[in-house]
Amino acid sequence: MNDTSVTLEESWKTALAGEFASPYMQQLKIFLVEQKQLGRRIFPKGGEYFRALDLTPLAKVKVVILGQDPYHGVGQAHGLCFSVRPGVRIPPSLVNIYKEMETDLGISPARHGFLEHWAKQGVLLLNSVLTVEESQAASHQGKGWERFTDAVIRKVNDECEAVVFMLWGSYAQKKAAFVDARRHLVLKAPHPSPLSAHNGFFGSRHFSKANAFLQTHGRAPIDWQLPASP
């Protein structure tokens, strides 16, 4: 996964050149190649590992939403946290995200889970780990992705102004603990999973708070209403 082999949006490719050249990323590339040689199916497909970065250039980041791992079911993951491909059943956590949006903004829940409309407006939908083996949850944790996505978050923190970080659950909150809350808006809530959403995710009003902050800082708000058909 050296710099010359990566197809990536140019601003991110430049900002992360040092990461791609580093030994840990070389080791991660070797690991992924070996897994594929062993016949293991990796999600998302290779061209979508960095889809979140491709759709949301560094200078255009307005909101960061952090996930943990890609979905590990066939046809689900496509490189954006919480998002699934058109035609795929909406996962439970995203169902709860839609419920909170309806309460907060009066937006009727979409009938699909495809979130590229958000990403194209500046919502960086970043998983901490960018690959997973089919049906093996968390199978690629500890292989180097976490260090890479830490670098992504650090670039946003250091180089962007007035970004909203939506940190849902303790994992996301720990991962982005270094974000400068004097320059950015850090919103924290329990994870939208059915196991925890009733502990404070519902009623958190993160979507309206994000738009109010963006507008206060002269930035266009996010249109959270997803298209009827993706």
Key features?
single chain, 230 residues, alpha/beta, two-stranded antiparallel ribbon, 6 strands
Helix-strand blueprint:
Blueprint (H helix, E strand, L loop, with lengths): L9 H6 L1 H4 L2 H15 L4 E2 L7 H5 L7 E5 L24 H14 L10 H4 L3 E5 L4 E2 L11 H15 L4 E5 L1 H6 L9 E5 L16 H11 L14
Parallel strand pairs: 2-3, 2-5, 5-6
Antiparallel strand pairs: 1-4
Characterize the structure shown.
The protein is an alpha/beta fold. The chain has helices spanning 10-15, 17-20, 23-37, 51-55, 92-105, 116-119, 145-159, 170-175, 206-216, and strands at 42-43, 63-67, 123-127, 132-133, 164-168, 185-189. Helix 8 links the parallel strand 5 and strand 6. The radius of gyration is 17 Å and the shape is globular.
Using the alpha-carbon principal axes, give the shape: globular
Our count of helices gives: 9
Termini Cα gap: 31 Å
Low-confidence stretches are none
Short description:
With 230 residues, the chain is of the alpha/beta class. Helix content is 35%, strand content 10%. The chain contains 9 helices and 6 strands.
